[in-house]
Structures are given as C-alpha cells and as structure tokens.
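sry for the spam today, last one i promise. struct tokens for design, 240 residues
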C-alpha cells in the first residue's frame, strides 16, 4: 500500500510539473502579439482590390476572399510586440498619425506584384512609395520600437487552425521586417489574394492602368495567415 501511495505521489508531482511547464509555455507564447499598423484605403482602392480578389478566387478557389477578417490595407509596419504593452503601442501610433494627417495624401497605385510561395504566390497592388509614406513608416517604427519583441511563434498570430495556417516564412518576415521591408526596401501595397505563379505571371504581364486614391483611416491589426489583417485590435482616429 505504501509503495502504491509513493507511486501515486510521484505521478502527481510529475503531472503537476508537466502541466506547469505547459502553462508556462502557453503564457510565454501569448505574451507576444504579431501586429500590423496599417492605413485603410478609400473606396477607389477597395473597388480595385475586391475586383482583383474576385478574379483570383475564380482562378484559384483555394485562396482567401477579402472580407471582414481579411481587411484590405496598406501595411506600414509589421512587428512582434509585447502583449502587455499593446495599449502603449496604440497610443504611440495614434500620436504619430495625428501629426502626419495621411487622409490628406494622394497616393498612386501603379502595378500588380506577387511574393512567390511555389507553386503559388501572394499578390498585391503596389503603391508608389512617397516621401510621406516613408516618413510615416520611420516615425511609427521609432514610436513602437520600445515595445517590440525580437521574434514570436505561431501563437502570436490570429489563427483558426491552432497555428497550422501560420507559415514559418511569415514568422521570419515579421521578425526581420525592419531589415527587409522598411526604408528604401519598403514596398507599400494592398494584398489582393493568392494565385498560381503561372496565372500571376500572366496577370502581371497585362497593362495596368494607374489610379489615385487616399487613406481614410488607420488600424492596428493582429496578423493572420499569409500576413493578412485578420483581427482589428484598435481603430486609430485620423484627423483631416
């Protein structure tokens, strides 16, 4: 009987330790959030983005639709931030945007592009990187910098598949955003969906009629699969 009690006690200690480690792991993962500070485009861009998205879905139904959980947007920065500091991130971003007043800007969309993910690709409408956009991006990076984490895991993203829909390449992209997608490497765009590389190459070879549009708002989103703006965390008020 004593031997049995010792076995039960040992099992209980081991189980408690295992559960403790599991809880610690979850706490560590949830302590970081993958965010996207983004400008919201006006009706002109929305119309073009939705039309292109419908075209891609017709050719590649396995892609995603632009909808309430895949918001069309212009990414200004993507970062891993400490979840406990999110309110400070919102306040810092709002302060920068209030000074910049991006709703007064006239931006130009001038071509399609895609990021290869063979045999498919993630496509977007590219926006000319103006001095205003570059300045705003740098100010946001500076403002959010104190709250960032070096990297994160799939748990930092909004997922409907327990992280299985979060690409490792996406985690690496957010981790290295400052090095690969800011300053003279900034490629402002509105993501429009997924297609096969063969179809996207045909799409890019077609003439593209440039059009002008303006930002109408800004938000902080939690990123999801393929870098989409899956969950709005905070709408940021822009002054005209």
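last one done:
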């Amino acid at each position: 009987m004593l031997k049995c009690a010792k076995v039960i006690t040992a099992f209980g200690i081991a189980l408690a330790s295992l559960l403790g480690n599991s809880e610690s792991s979850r706490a560590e993962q949830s302590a970081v959030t993958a965010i996207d500070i983004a400008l919201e485009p006006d009706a002109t861009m929305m119309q073009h983005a939705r039309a292109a998205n419908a075209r891609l879905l017709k050719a590649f139904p396995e892609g995603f639709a632009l909808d309430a959980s895949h918001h069309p947007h212009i990414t200004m920065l993507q970062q891993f931030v400490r979840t406990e500091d999110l309110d400070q991130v919102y306040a810092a971003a709002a302060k920068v945007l209030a000074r910049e007043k991006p709703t007064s800007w006239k931006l130009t969309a001038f071509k399609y592009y895609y990021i290869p993910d063979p045999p498919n690709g993630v496509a977007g409408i590219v926006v000319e990187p103006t001095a205003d956009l570059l300045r705003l991006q740098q100010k946001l990076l500076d403002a959010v910098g104190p709250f960032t984490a070096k990297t994160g895991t799939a748990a930092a993203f909004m997922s409907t598949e327990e992280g299985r829909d979060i690409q490792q390449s996406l985690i690496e992209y957010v981790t290295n955003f400052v090095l690969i997608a800011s300053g003279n490497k900034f490629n402002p765009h509105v993501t429009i969906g997924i297609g096969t590389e063969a179809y996207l190459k045909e799409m890019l070879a077609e003439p593209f009629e440039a059009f002008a549009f303006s930002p109408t708002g800004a938000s902080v989103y939690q990123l999801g699969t393929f870098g989409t703006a899956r969950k709005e965390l905070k709408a940021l008020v822009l002054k005209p």
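The chain has seven helices and eight strands. ok im logging off now
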